[in-house]
Amino acid sequence: MADNLATWGGWEPAIRDDPFGHFAQARARCPVQRVRLADGHPAWLVLIVDPPDHTRLRRLVSRAFVPSRVAALEPAIRAIADSLLDQLGSAGPGATVDLIEGYAYPLPFGVIGELLGIPPADRPQLHAWFQVLLTGWSGDPPAAAVDASDGIVAYLRELVDSKRRSPADDLVSVLVAASDLTLTTQELLSTLFQLVVAGHDTTASLIGNGVVALLDHPGQFRALLADPGRLPTAIDELIRFTAPVPHATFRVTAEPVTLNGVQVPAHEQVLVCLASANRDPERFPAPDVLDIGRHNGPNLGFGHGIHYCLGAPLARLEARVAFETLLGRHPDLRLAVARDALSWAHGDGLVLRGLVSLPVVLGPDRCPGINDQPIPSISGRQQ
User: Fold this and answer.
1) Which of 332, 272, 270 is nearest to 89 (CA)?
2) What is the pLDDT of residues 226-248, one digit of tens each?
């Protein structure tokens, strides 16, 4: 098995857009396989930072995601969602709009920008850089991606310096204060980068993927419209079913480990296939069926154990508000293009799986002009 390398990532568009059959075949052959990534490097498909460093870093960041702080964000998230739908709705009830560009991405990006203390004027450029960087490619990264990466790093360095000079009530200021004692500069910049990506791209993909899944299953869509109280359960099912994060971030074995009778050597990359685990028929009955009322226990969409996603409560809140607002105002939402015209080429196809765009017709707005007032920001300032 060790010499039988299968290509993983950079796959053909049909597999990239709907990888679940591919995952099922791999799971049936053997749940532990040696694969070759799109960049040519080998990895094991099935830890990145372990304790004590992981414990130290997680403890610092976790204070931003305590339940009371997350719950306090709901009014601002709801106001942002309404404002974005107002802007999209201004095109008219029969117009085609891009739900990714106009709603799914700017909503969580605005929230994470507030949490981190990124000035509103800086967010468009930062968002543009991340969009370039998170667009999939094969082989060596294009020059635009290298420039975007350099721009992000330079910006984060300047943001850190500005918060060191003038601290504020935001997460970057908290981490900067801690960095003088417990964080290296590289750890600080890496943590900020991960927070921005995990804080917006994954949730944006969940919103986009989830809308398509509901449109693909009109019975489930109608059931959710009839009872919005089912949204919390529905969101967990959409995470399981649509795989906005198909694999965990790269891990490295610290020592040889045997899984399912297969030995993975030490110091090799390991890919934990969350999407495949969440479609495992031994864990979820009828795993390829979308069931917004499913009660089979938690899935692995947010990870597990000490690496469980810190931002899971915030992601769930953002998704609940996003779907509640969108479906409440536009229950007649429909695709504006053929279903097979959609492409999941955003992201690397491994850790991230999202739509490039989602052209839709919103239909009549059940609540027009809902957001005529300035948006209350998370920090208490108005935008």
Assistant:
1) 332
2) 999 999 999 999 999 999 988 87
